[in-house]
Amino acid sequence: MERIPILRMGSYLLVTIQIDMQDQTALRLQEDLAASIEQNTARGVLIDVSALEMVDSFIGRMFIGISDIARILGAATVVVGIRPAVAITLVELGLPLSGVRTALNVERGMALLDKAQRGELR
Amino acid sequence: MERIPILRMGSYLLVTIQIDMQDQTALRLQEDLAASIEQNTARGVLIDVSALEMVDSFIGRMFIGISDIARILGAATVVVGIRPAVAITLVELGLPLSGVRTALNVERGMALLDKAQRGELR
Question: I need a surface site. Which of A47, A54, A55, B59 has the fewest CB within 10 A?
Fold first, then answer.
């Protein structure tokens, strides 16, 4: 089973999703991330999906799941690099990612995490 | 097929809707806007509808869709210039545009986008 690496950057964790995930891989990622947030007392999770050209409802719900799990563990999540076509698909699937913070690229995502950490975002 | 122009103003995009859009035109606008947000790393989208005297549920839902897509791509959306009669129609159609920011005119819409960019709005 493929396993997606989780990189530590200071108090943030970076996940770069480069493959179209199977369900098992996605569930494993959720578990690994939850464990990693605890181990590293991480404050934020940055999920880069710029390599993904498609997304289905399973992946969309996974973003929401990861975001909820991270929040419960005290970390903010930002999904970055969503392509325009993927954004349209998500909305068409009825998954507008309402509870998930998003940003155009990694740089802006980091800025958003910094803001969240300073308590400037809810 | 008609195509609605998207103007760049600094880090914002301005769309002026002057025709009663056919469905295809509206879908094309969604795609063009999504691509344009990415290309210009836009922070906000201003949709001026002051020229529209009527609106149907398709257009109402399109505002919501554009707003969701833009948010996923990290940009705030403000719909400005909704006429009183159009506002009444939207509510009667059961589309109170709850998730969509609106303002009376372009000036106020810009101020709202500035606020959103400073993180004063969610």
Answer: A54
